[in-house]
Amino acid sequence: MGMLRRLLAAVSLLLLSAPARAQVQPLPGAFRIQEIPTPGATLHVRVGGRGPAVLLLHGYGETGDMWTPLAVNLVRDHTVVIPDLRGLGLSSRPPAGYDKKTQAQDVAAVLDALQIERAHLVTHDIGNMVGYAFAAQYPGRVSRFVIMDAPLPGIGPWDELVRSKALWHFSFGGPDAERLVAGRERIYLDRFWNEFSADPKRFSEASRAHYAKLYALPGAMHAGFAQFAAFDQDARDNQAFLARGKLTMPVLAVGGQQSFGPTMAVVMRAVATNVQEVVIADSGHWLMEEQPAATVSVVRAFLDQGDPARRLTPADISELAKHEAGAGTSGVTGIQTTVLFGDPKAPGLYTIRLTVAANTRIQAHTHQDNRVATVVSGTWYFGYGPRLDEAALRALPVGSFYTEPASVAHFALTKDAAAVVDITGYGPTSTNYLGVSARQP
Hints:
This protein has 14 helices and 19 strands. Helix 4 (126-137) links the parallel strand 5 and strand 6. The chain is of the alpha+beta class. The strands form 3 sheets. It has an 8-stranded mixed β-sheet with strand order 1-2-4-3-5-6-7-8, with helices on both faces. It is elongated. Helix 2 packs parallel to helix 13, helix 3 (100-113) crosses helix 4 and helix 4 (126-137) runs parallel beside helix 10 (231-243).
């Protein structure tokens, strides 16, 4: 029942996303606007940057404006593409084509117009549904897929969820519904923004006014309701996609702790073979607005695993996600890990940065992979052997290099100052202690 309650709450909020903790901000001047025709619509698209392409798809109740915090981060070394979906924002509002299979074809047309063959895909809410339809129809065009906090019609527990009275808005449409909402768009949208955030105060007044104004444009609510009305067709299409096979590209399923949570990964494991899971703490449905820094960090880290060309300044590194201990470390309290490249838990090359607090002792242990390391700051005291022996330690100042051969025991410590060490190996890695506790002082 706990999972069902989370699902019901999350699906109720399913189709909205709005800005919160930081109000809507304009994209920087690095972005240009293009009006790109598709077979049935014209999409308003923001494009900026150079490098591997990333396509960002928004949900209902917002527009591509929601992506500004992530876009500002990615545009430094990616080509970032941000369309307003058919019928929403400043895109055209055709009378039909709101099934997600057709909207995925809009997305393909946008990439074709920009001469982009392959892209990372990041989606939220209704954007999830369009994104899955795109990945299922054009799997060779998606490198990595980040999908955030909304289910997929016809997939997993969908049939049980749509029977809930909490989902009244799924069937709220037609001429009379449009008459009821006309002139009251803000009231209608506030219901979602308030009920499906961890803290409604994080959803700024400026952001609410911004999106309410866009959804009050002629035909906008009609097009918005059409997104819901297409769900039955979307469910049939999704089941047909799944019958052809699961997605095989890496997928990151992200849920808000007080919203979809780990259930996002449950949904995606029904349709994909390679799924990682992240839950964003202290967030409802509006991940990019309620917890922008945390959300940008996890998205960036996942996409970087698939980008072989990396150029990181110290400022860039400071913005990456940091974790206590983590894969490839000794697991000792006082060590902070930043993944600079790859994934130490997966096959392939990786680099991690260890920031080790002063007066930290690391007992003898081994790793299953061969590793090399460089001391970036401080003095690192490092030695080889089956137990921590201070007489065997060597002081390694900034710029020092050392190796950690596979299965060769080693140990280390810091003294009265912290140290930073970069370690590169070929994963998956592991840590095996030699008869002592990982946290032994």
